[in-house]
Design goal:
Length: 425
């Protein structure tokens, strides 16, 4: 019997999943598949919390499918080898998937398409993880936007409404109970760090409360949007005209995704080449103090400790710690970006890279290089009662807490002078 395969990637849900809906509406006998990709796994520790979250999300899908005598097919390996095996095992008539826009995914998918083409199997891909894809919001002359505000205005002018897919048809899933592998069988162990549930109850107060890290007033949507445990359309349908600031943050996400797509060099290079002249100091011992949260600047240290312990850091604090690393310590933004990539539960290449380049001043629509956050003033303004700081630095008021590792005024002037003299004009 001919089989249709639906390939789960970063869309780990059954509801409002565009390609899955299409697969089930057109074909019978749909086998849902997930591949634990060894190319990705080999770069990550065995207890990586993102992999554990993926595992739990897949387990939930598998359990839901079991109620309908179906199940999830889970494989582990290099995608090209897994697909070569699947071609031997099944008579596949078509493959459905949602598009992924990261450079690695684009390359992987092109290889799989070639393999399927050689077997005369159709690969059908759909837009799912964004409202507008990389080339749907463009300037009048057909080139991509590199400044956020005009991009956002165009995005808003194109946006009409979203369409949520009705419930899926479980009847069309294959009726086989596949074995769901244990973490051990996958060579993984559980992570003590868990992804929090998201909440959209915060959106009405978002504008006034979002900058205060002691308040639990952001959505925690990050990992859920990253791995698709909720659809972006379902989030947007819950917003009203009063939630413009929150919507704007979701548009930043798509802005950076299209920047990454059109300018893939940003993965390893400054968006603005004139910043290539900066000779970063990259002092290893300074970097270690930043990573551990022992710089002597409470806002920076609280943020880094929150990140190390929970896989999350509040956005305001991310801006402060990133600016501190690049400007106060003159450490290359790529080192900070890589550290965040290891630790963040909501790690997303496009957003992480875009925001780091913003903080370093090297990005497309970046903070000007002479804007150097004062971490002490930021703490006074956004954590006036020291609540956030005390939560993450229990020894803050004791002599165990270090003195500032560098004087703010000295560091500020040093950074501005360095940028001024080394930027290539
Ligand atoms: P909310 O404030 O509730 O926002 C809702 C959603 O909007 C977020 O989940 C995210 O999808 C999107 N969003 C919000 N702010 C931004 C932004 N500045 N850029 C892009 N999207 C945004 N966000 C990531 O998703 N992944 C990253 O790897 C990442 N790295 C960052 C690195 C630095 C140096 C900085 C300054 C910011 C980074 N951000 C990143 C953006 C932002 O800090 C997080 O999206 C946000 O803190 C996640 O928490 P939340 O889901 O509660 O956000």
């Amino acid at each position: 019997m001919k089989t249709t395969i639906f390939w789960f990637r970063r869309d780990l849900r059954l509801n409002d999943n565009i390609a899955l809906f299409e697969a089930l509406s057109k074909k019978n006998n749909v086998v849902p598949l997930f591949i634990f990709d060894e190319h990705i796994l080999e770069e990550l520790p065995s207890d990586d919390s993102r992999v554990h979250f993926i595992y739990k999300s897949l387990q939930s899908i598998h359990n839901q499918l079991q109620q309908y005598n179906s199940s999830l097919l889970v494989r582990k390996g290099k995608p090209e080898e897994v697909w070569a095996n699947l071609l031997q095992e099944y008579t596949i008539d078509s493959v459905f998937m949602n598009r992924d826009y990261e450079p690695y995914a684009i390359k992987r998918d092109a290889e799989i398409k070639k393999l399927l083409d050689n077997h005369h199997i159709q690969l059908l891909s759909y837009k799912d993880q964004v409202i507008f894809e990389e080339s749907e919001v463009m300037k009048a002359d057909g080139t991509p936007y590199t400044v956020f505000t005009p991009y956002k205005n165009k995005w808003l002018s194109l946006f009409k409404s979203v369409d949520i897919k009705p419930s899926i048809n479980y009847k069309n899933f294959h009726q086989t109970l596949y074995h769901f592998p244990s973490l051990k069988e996958l060579g993984r162990v559980a992570s003590p760090i868990r992804v929090k549930d998201f909440s959209l109850d915060i959106v009405d107060d978002y504008e006034t409360k979002r900058n205060f890290p002691a308040l639990d007033s952001t959505s925690y949507l990050g990992p859920h949007l990253r791995f698709g445990t909720i659809s972006i359309r379902q989030v947007i349908t819950q917003l009203s005209n009063e939630n413009a600031v929150f919507l704007s943050e979701l548009i930043w996400r798509e802005f950076f995704m299209q920047i990454l797509f059109h300018f893939p060099k940003v993965v390893s290079h400054n968006f603005r080449a004139k910043y290539d002249g900066i000779k970063w100091l990259n002092q290893e011992s300074d970097f270690q103090r930043w990573c551990k949260g022992t710089t002597g600047y409470p806002m920076v240290d609280a943020g880094m400790r929150q990140l190390n312990q929970t896989g999350y850091m509040h956005n305001r604090v991310r801006m402060v710690v990133a600016s501190f690393l690049c400007k106060h310590l003159l450490i290359d933004w790529r080192l900070g970006e890589a550290y965040f990539a290891q630790k963040l539960l909501d790690y997303e290449l496009a957003s992480n890279n875009g925001n780091w380049q913003w903080a370093a001043g090297t990005g497309c629509d970046a903070a000007p290089y002479f804007r150097v956050f004062n971490p002490t003033e930021q703490a006074k303004k956004f954590d006036a009662q020291n609540e956030y700081i005390k939560k993450w630095i229990p020894e803050i008021d004791t002599d165990k807490y270090p003195e500032p590792m560098v004087d703010h005024s000295f560091a500020r002037n040093r950074a501005i002078n360095k940028y001024k003299s080394e930027i290539i004009s």
